[in-house]
Amino acid sequence: MTWHRKDLLDLQSLSAEEIVTVLDTAREFKAVGERHIKKVPALRGKTVVNLFVEPSTRTRISFELAAQRLSADVINFSAEASSLRKGETLKDTAKNLEALNADFIVIRHSAAGAPHFLARVLGSHVVNAGDGAHEHPTQGLLDIFTMREKKGRVEGLRVTILGDILYSRVARSNIWGLQKLGAQVTLCGPPTLVPRTFEAMGCRVVHDLKQAIRDADVINLLRIQHERQRKSMFPGLGEYTNLFGITQSRLADTKPDALIMHPGPINRGVEVDGDVADGERSVILEQVTNGLAIRMAALYLINSSRGDSAAHN
Amino acid sequence: MPPQTPSPAVLLSASAIESAVARMSRAIADSHPNGADVVLIGIQTGGVHLARQLASRLGAVWKHNLPVGQLDVAMHRDDLDQRLAPKVHPTAIPFDVTGKEVILVDDVLFTGRTTRAALGALNDLGRPKRVQLAVLIDRGHRELPIQADFIGSKLATAPADRVDVQLIDGDGASQVTIQRAPLKRGGRS
Known about the structure:
heterodimer; A: 313 residues; alpha/beta; Rossmann fold; 2 domains; 4-stranded parallel β-sheet; B: 189 residues; 5-stranded parallel β-sheet; 3-stranded antiparallel β-sheet
């Protein structure tokens, strides 16, 4: 078992062994969630601050419940209500939270690297809950956890990630984690959103849907972020759906046991049809359950690393 | 020069372990005449194998199969922020502990903190009628008011000694060894 890190910032810097440690630990935390009493005292007396400078509901709720099930106290701090609006710098906000003896800061920020910056300037444990288009490590871990649980392995799996790859931190965390564990990643979507530059990360880049999903063991659909979609990236949602939407009839072009995944919230009728999202191959709601277990495991592991670093101070 | 570390000494041989386990199972059988409602729960990882061995002996005495579970205590430890995260092993208890005569099983009883964590973990799973503790080795140095009900062997140790229990089925390779801590700090290490 390998874990010495104070923070969880990205999957790019984790080793395969560290990723497997999180997955194995999460398996046992998932079992806790299936018990009558779903709470353990591992983080009793600790304080977790959810610092969400970019809005999010489901990731924040997942972290909040994870912290509560570990017996920690939780404070939610959102950009709308915060002094960041009044001109306070991120560092000052974080230092103030640390002065309240926050042991963990879970941060979501629109700027890539914001969690890494906090981890450098703070003694608190920092968890990246999504930074710009950079990474969303707990989402990547829960996706890989779900694939491993359903398929029994990650090595050798063919995983197709479909959609807005260019602006997706979920895609990047998936790519790093999956490749470290030996999966083969194919990226597919409109050329504007899936440029060939991703081949440099070791991925296969395909712009034809049929070709991308034919051999896939897992199809991970990313949300088309139409509310923040840059105008020129593709002509419209209708055209996107015609070319890349996963419908019941297109499932005929996939392996019969290919999993359908989606980080949510889904746009029914855009990237995926409702009957596919609700169908028996879909593991979308299990991803939500597994996300809770992954976040409990991440908090548990980094909490315990503190003694190690303190011993060297 | 580094301090001389003596090689581990064997405290209990395979046959000594076998008679200790036999003694334990007789003591358990004596205190539970018909074995009604008795379940064994081995503490991960050292207690799991011992619990199975005891269950097979007790099953022969009571003429019924004994339910056996395994309990991991990592999430319930009281020293989690003073150490690296302990590996979390599976907790698998395929029965309801409420109303049962639970016998917690561990290989070594030392400070008592693992037992305390196990009682906390068990409490979250239900409310047993009674909880007892069975250990192969009691090595002393308790830090909490905890004692075992069934003991295979009491050993005199120093707090810094390291006691290792290897339980292996069948081939006589089981043993309990002790790595004595150096009596004095050697040189400038």
